[in-house]
Amino acid sequence: MYSEWRSLQLIIQSDRGHMSVLHSYPSNVGKDVANAVVRPLGQGLNSSSATSNESILKTDKEVKWTMEVLCYGLTLPLDGETVKLCVDVYTDWIMALVARRDSIPQPIVKEPNLYVQTILKHLQNLFVPRPDYAHNQISLCMRVLVAVQKLARESVNMSRETWEVLLLFLLQINDTLLAAPTVPGGLAENLADKLIGVLFEVWFLACTRCFPTPPYWKTAREMLANWRHHPAVVEQWSKVICALTSRLLRFTYGPSFPPFKVPDEDAILIPAEMDNDCVAQTWFRVLHMLSNPVDLSNPAIISTTPKFQEQLLSVSGMAQEMMQHPCLKQLPQIFFRAMRGVSCLVDAFLGISRPRSDSAPPTPVNRLNMPQASSTMNTTPPHSRRMRSVTVTKATVKTSSGSTAHPPKVTHQTSTTSPLSSPNQTSSEPRPLPAPTRPKVNSVLNLFGQWLFDAGLVHCRLHNGMNRDGSMTASFIQILLSYKSCITTPAGLDVRRKPSQISTENMVANPLFDANEFPDNYEAGRAEACGTLCRIFCSKKTGEEILPVYLSRFYMVLIQGLQINDYICRPVLASIILNSPALFCSDLKGIDVLVPYFISALETILPDRELSKFKAYVNPTELRRASIHILLSMLPLPHHFGTVKAEVLLEGKFSSEDSSLHDKPVTFLSLKLRLVNVLIGALQTETDPNNTQMILGAMLNIVQDSALLEAIGSQTELSVGDSTHISFKSHSRNSSGISMTSTGSSEATTPDSERPAQALLRDYGCPALHTDTASGLLIRSIHLVTQRLNSQWRQDMSISLAALELLSGLAKVKVSVDSTDRKRAVSSVCSYIVHQCSRPAPFHSRDLHSMIVAAFQCLCVWLTEHPDMLNEKDCLIEVLEIVELGISGSKSKTSDQEVRHKGDKEPNPASMRVKDAAEATLTCIMQLLGAFPSPSGPASPCSLLNEETLIKYSRLTSTSKNHFRYFVLDNSIILAMLEQPLGNDQNPCPSVTVLIRGMSGRHAWTMQLYHQPRGSRASQKAFVPEPHPPPKDDVGIKYNVKHRPFPEEVDKIPFVKADLSIPDLHEIVTDQLEVQHEKLKKLMAKQILYENTLEKISEERLSKTLFPDPVTECIPPPPAQEFQTARLLLSHFGFLSLEALKEPGNSCRPPNLIALDSTLAGFFDDIGYLDLLPTRPFETVFIFYMKPGQKTSQEILKNVESSSNVQSHFLEFLLSLGWPVDVGKHPGWTGHVSTSWLINACNGSEGKEQEEMVAPDDTGGGIFNGEKKALYYADALTEIAFVVPSFMESSTDSSESGLTSQEAETQMDLLPSLLKQTPLTLELFPNHSENLSNSQRLSPTQKSKRLPLGRTVPPLGPETKVIVVWVERFDDIENFPLNDLLPEINTGVETTTNSSTSLRTTTSDKDVPVIFIHPLKTGLFRIKVQGVTGKFSMVIPLVDGMVVSRRALGFLVRQTIINICRRKRLESDSYNPPHVKRKQKIVDIVHKYRNKLLEPEFYTSLFQEVGPKSLNP
């Protein structure tokens, strides 16, 4: 920079301006003269009277002669007052440039600049160290420095010459005191901070008022390089360069750039009047004033300054002895402080800072703390703090009075933030993102790259032949070749140190420098440089190009810093890990070459539970968190790159193993097992809740990705032998997965450093080797999570929720596993519920009950995804016992013998929320298992029929709903019974159509009464009774027998007197009686003849008549056509008993059977209101597409109009979330209440028009804006509408887009086959019914989505909606206009009102979770999640910083959305599950419309017809 300018050092050294004429005389002469002359001057200054205060010097000659004496007086010993009086006089006289005083001689007043220049040269004598009275000299020097400081601040008449003399004076006195080796407790050590501080302050004042010429800058740079062994020099340089940077950024990047705040005491060092151009010029020159700060890591360079060499010659010592001077022991700390200063500057330019709540400066990302040094190397103690600060604060220098072996201890307080009280404490605050307007990586590296790259390789054992080119033009291939040569050559020396200057043998020979301790002292500065480089490269913008030479040198630094085989440098390793969470998310070219090294580092950190050897440098929790972030970003790489070979991996180049194996290329797929082992090992040892949740999210990611990869059959299978060889033999780091640390390690193996594979083999045995398959991963994940869920995690709410979410996600992974593993998951959830419910009462809280509710929800997911599990008796019993426990508070079967029946128990659930969750589980078991999707499809678990539809297909001429009878069963089920058979039913049997409205929804059933089994009904004929058999008259012989009234034996009995007491007829007949008797005989004979004739005629007629006689034959009556089927049904189910109609005596509950009066006003409105209550939670997701540089909502909304505006992966992502549905026909949730859950609003003509609409061939996803089309996903437990808002024109009659039939067919292929249902029918047997699939409902025609007239929507809150944003450029996340887009995410739930309840929610940007998806050049996707706040802050599986594959993106996003909304509902105090809302509404309907009839009146009403004709006016 100043190569063409001369330095002023020779001029300074040859200047004799500080010499007096008295120096030519003997010392006693000068002393006597000085004592005699100075005393009157000093007494005059100290006099209080105005007359005596006037100067006694009047002429120019007198003043000059007196100044010669004063100049000599400043060189005298400090045993008297002469030197003090000289200082008093001169500090008074130099104020002539500030203000006129009477004590100042008139010649000085007239020409102050000339005299002040001479005085400054004379004052140099004061700063020459004296052997005695050091305290007096310190105070006098301080007085002079304060006076000079005041002079520079307040003087307005200083000429350029005076400024230059002042600057040279300050440089000279600093060089006099600071250039020599430091003496403990000496003058230099005490004055260093003030000296360098005044120099910088005066220098900045000179820059403002009289900018120094290049020779002065060059001189300052050369002289400052000689003072760097003083901590105060680097400390003050860091302060002033940070203050200058703060001013520079303010006008360079504008007010929108994050401010770089420095303490006020540092900010005032930069004059306010310094203009922007001056600030820029000064900043660059001051930045390089310290020369190369990396020189501080090399004692050979620091000890070759002239003053060091001068002292060396004076003691006739060796060069090595001077390098071991005690003052050089502080170089590690000074080097660290210099690197910390450079790091602060880098962070300032990157804008990595975040405002704090208090007035303290911002706190940026993690930094290492200074290591705890040994007794021989006394450095700064560690600070257990989480975040480092950009702030540079003043250092406190304490002087040590010990021996030379213990140099002064320097304590640096680099942050005004309060440190953590213990290393185990941590915070979940997100890492600050770099500023969007930050400079490019190349620009930052052009400024600081050479320093940082050199510092990152300090004391690395590189090969001699590999020299670091100062111009940074070495190619990465050269570096690789050099590393390859390291296999056969011994490790060389540090390339910056010449072999003649320092060597390992020399360090070992000297007792002051231990061979193991010496390099460690510079680890802190090296670690700071490595961390800073990582932050720089992680700040790469999307699409930004970085020079290959920078990338190659950066990878070199990382390769060295991540070494674990030969020697583990823990501060450097920790710094790299802490500052590289986004390294694999930044699209750096060739970054994947470092994957094995990072895996090896993670294998060292994550399985170590205590990290005791890292605690001295960093918070272990933060280190583990950063390691997990890196692991999350590397997990998809093996599957993504598969069998791609990394040809340039440097694996094993630093070990002594056979190089033939190391040269074999490694496939990314072979690294999968190591990554999985690290992941599982991390989960086994992790104790921090946030870290654990991140690992759980990663587990679902890798399991789902493996399952999808195997499902599409694109995975290249490796044989067992090959995979074992590649994974465990070919690379030293691979072998570390099972073996202990490498042979070359300098530390002993401890249990804390066990590898993950060891722990897994110990815990699970052989199955640990099968995690390369999806089923093996799934089984291992289930085993590990279930084991810890019921042990370590069950007390922690956040981990429990995440573990349950992971189990729910694993239930949905389509991998065939053994039923015992599925049962293990269900059983563990049941055990978890039992444990939580059985905790003592003081532990029961809302949070505990939320955990139980989440467990029941997880149980429902497993049961609905695997309904066949309940076919096993033991699993069914266990699940039902848990349901019973949740509903009643205890199990009926507490032991093998004791059983308490339900009626004998008093219900005492843990809470109503737990009871509701258990009831929902029971409903799921009884209603959904094996019955989803319903005949209506997955969009509606309920029937799509209601009274209006059914009445149209009945035989009634009237379409009034009053033909239905309404009853309520058990106060929870409403029955709507239509006793008329439907029009297509020809069977004359009792038939009733029932609409069942319960807690689980609305279901339609047609019931028929048959006295035969259903199986025989298909071939059955009309009933015909059997005829009588024909008579057979010819059977046997017919005899003519005259029957006697009495047997013949009667005549043989002799008469007795009694028998003769009744006389015979002839004995008593008289003539008169005789006549009458004869007359009677004739009549009898005539009657006998007549009867015989009739009998004969009858026999003749009978013989001519066929059998059977149609006149006399019994004929069965015709089948009845009218039935009181409602009465029959209720009777057959036992609801018409007198007990069912009576109200319980000791309860407020109504009877088991209640009739409802449908004629009351408002009845059908309330029934419709009940039908609108959803039966499962519904979520809404709004998806936006953000192109680079966009900031307005209009620009974002217009992106989805055409596919040319969006990436192809975006459209693929949309269709992976759900399937397209037509809003006009869709019976489920559509994203807005005005178009959701509508049935029977169809209009044939409009529906036809909707079908005929032609969609544009080109769409960017805007077709799914919720007007005509939307994306939809539903399972048995939830439904989600995905809406892509688009820009809507002002005209309301513009045509809207729809899908072509071909596109619709193509997209419907995305649906699982089980979701493609047969058309809905009204009969139990579809072959006997009409096809009603063409029936469609009216779609909304208004874009404003207003509710149809007369339709009341119930309150559906709390609202759960999520925003998903596809960002092409990651830096645009901070510019996403969320507030402007809030009107576009209206679902209508916010303004739904009820007659008695009004639910209005005000949505803010902080309440809406946002998931940002950024596509990387590799084809993977980077995730950022924001807006999820509260105690349920972290939701899995997607966590901030994760990288996912194309295959798993849709599933993971959808699962995250489901979990976010579930946690929101758990957190909400006002949320009630759907079945509870429906139950409450049913109770309300019973209360309002109950028909309170007496029992006789009720029974009578069952025999009466219902309908308009039977209604009373």
Give the helices and strands, then pairings.
Elements: H1 9-14, H2 27-46, H3 50-53, H4 60-73, H5 82-93, H6 106-110, H7 112-123, H8 134-154, H9 160-178, H10 187-209, H11 214-224, H12 231-252, H13 264-267, H14 276-287, H15 299-302, H16 306-315, H17 319-323, H18 331-350, E1 396-397, E2 410-411, H19 441-456, H20 476-485, H21 504-509, H22 523-538, H23 548-561, H24 570-578, H25 595-605, H26 620-634, H27 637-641, E3 645-646, H28 659-662, E4 666-667, H29 672-685, H30 689-712, H31 720-728, H32 732-735, H33 756-764, H34 774-789, H35 797-811, H36 819-837, H37 846-865, H38 873-888, H39 912-928, H40 947-952, E5 964-969, E6 973-978, E7 991-998, E8 1001-1008, H41 1065-1068, H42 1071-1104, H43 1125-1132, H44 1138-1141, E9 1153-1156, H45 1163-1172, E10 1178-1186, H46 1193-1198, H47 1208-1217, E11 1219-1222, H48 1244-1252, E12 1269-1274, E13 1279-1283, H49 1301-1308, E14 1361-1367, H50 1378-1381, E15 1410-1415, E16 1421-1426, E17 1443-1444, H51 1446-1467, H52 1474-1489, H53 1495-1502
Parallel strand pairs: 10-13, 10-14, 14-15
Antiparallel strand pairs: 1-2, 3-4, 5-6, 5-9, 6-7, 7-8, 11-12, 12-13, 15-16, 16-17
